[in-house]
Specification:
Arc Repressor Mutant, subunit A, 2 domains, 3-stranded mixed β-sheet, 5 strands, globular, plasmid, MarR family transcriptional regulator
Length: 192
């Protein structure tokens, strides 16, 4: 697996959730070529090449974290398996790499949608370095370089990725709370 595989799978979950909330017709009208799950549309939304997306989906299906539905032939994350991997193994496979204080987009419990969920014991908030970021904090290398841009385009994806960072960065209590919150978000949807 590669770290961008997690980003792609969380985006697919976000699209599924949007499909339920908005309806497929509206989601198609907002997508490139009318197919929200196409590698072309995912490339535009995530800043990850079509080739890398296709390879990522193959890796995810081979590992059991995703499957391909026959009709339509769309990749579908296996939500429970993905959650189990994120909660129990992600911080060991893709540990968080901290950098200097910088301006950026807040992540982990500093992310706006998680504000008030838990106050971290740290001195600084965590941020993904980003040119348009207004918050100063301890920089964290995102799972993939295009994560800040992708998060700005999709608030639901932003929340999922911030929770993933809280799991990667948090102590046992913080990581546990983030895992519980993420589980309630991603395993309650369809395709579990």
């Amino acid at each position: 697996m590669k770290s961008q595989d997690i980003v792609i799978l969380l985006k697919l979950i976000s699209l599924q959730d949007q499909e339920i909330a908005k309806g497929m017709d509206q989601l198609r009208s907002e997508s490139i070529g009318g197919d929200p799950y196409s590698v072309r549309n995912l490339e535009a939304l995530l800043g990850i090449s079509k080739t890398e997306i296709a390879q990522s989906i193959r890796r995810s299906v081979a590992s059991g974290i995703a499957r391909k539905d026959n009709i339509p032939s769309e990749p579908r994350p296996h939500r429970r398996n993905l959650f189990d991997f994120i909660a129990k193994g992600l911080k060991f496979v893709f540990p968080a790499k901290l950098g200097p204080l910088q301006r950026g987009l807040p992540t982990a419990f500093a992310a706006p949608m998680l504000n008030g969920l838990l106050v971290s014991g740290g001195t600084y908030d965590y941020v993904w370095p980003h040119a348009s970021g207004h918050q100063m904090g301890q920089s964290v290398e995102p799972l993939f370089r295009s994560v800040p841009e992708a998060a700005l385009k999709d608030e639901r994806l932003y929340e999922y990725l911030a929770l993933v960072d809280a799991i990667r960065l948090g102590n046992q209590r913080e990581a546990g709370l983030a895992a519980d919150h993420l589980k309630s978000k991603i395993t309650s949807g369809r395709g579990s």
